């Protein structure tokens, strides 16, 4: 139990989810949206909690990049965020370094627009990236554009 005093009463917080133990190291998480996800530290029935953190970062940043490219009228056909990460050797085995590499495929997609989209996500919009970076994780980004 933490000695930290919550800033708000947890019952009055606007976003609420839960995690329910199923068996062994398998849990079912229910997001505030009501969607469920399998969480499994053994990686048998689902992704591990730390894998979900990594995927959450990739999803958050990808959402930003796609939205920014669409607003700038880039004819994107596919966007993939390849994630690489390093974890500490000691407990807690937190992420120390995470790299996001965006592969953007489309017709006449401008590299400058992709560079701008990735930078805006990293520096301004991606809540997950900002939270991890502020917590001491070294987060880096790169991209490539592939003509379709």
TrEMBL record:
Which Pfam families does its entry note? OsmC
Looking at the UniProt entry, the stretches that span the membrane are none
- Note the superkingdom of the native organism: Bacteria
Tell me which SUPFAM superfamilies the record gives.
OsmC-like
Q: What name does UniProt use for this protein?
A: OsmC-like protein
Q: Which organism is it from?
A: Psychrobacter piechaudii
């Amino acid at each position: 139990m933490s000695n930290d005093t919550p800033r708000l009463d947890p019952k009055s917080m606007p976003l609420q989810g839960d995690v329910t133990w199923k068996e062994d190291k398998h849990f079912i998480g229910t997001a505030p949206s009501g969607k469920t996800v399998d969480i499994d530290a053994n990686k048998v029935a689902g992704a591990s909690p730390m894998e979900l953190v990594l995927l959450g970062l990739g999803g958050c940043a990808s959402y930003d990049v796609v939205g920014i490219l669409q607003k700038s009228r880039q004819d994107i056909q596919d966007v993939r965020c390849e994630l690489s990460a390093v974890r500490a050797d000691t407990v807690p085995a937190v992420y120390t370094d995470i790299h996001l590499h965006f592969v953007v495929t489309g017709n006449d997609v401008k590299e400058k627009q992709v560079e701008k989209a990735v930078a805006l996500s990293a520096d301004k919009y991606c809540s997950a990236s900002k939270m991890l970076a502020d917590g001491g994780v070294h987060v880096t980004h790169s991209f490539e554009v592939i003509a379709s």
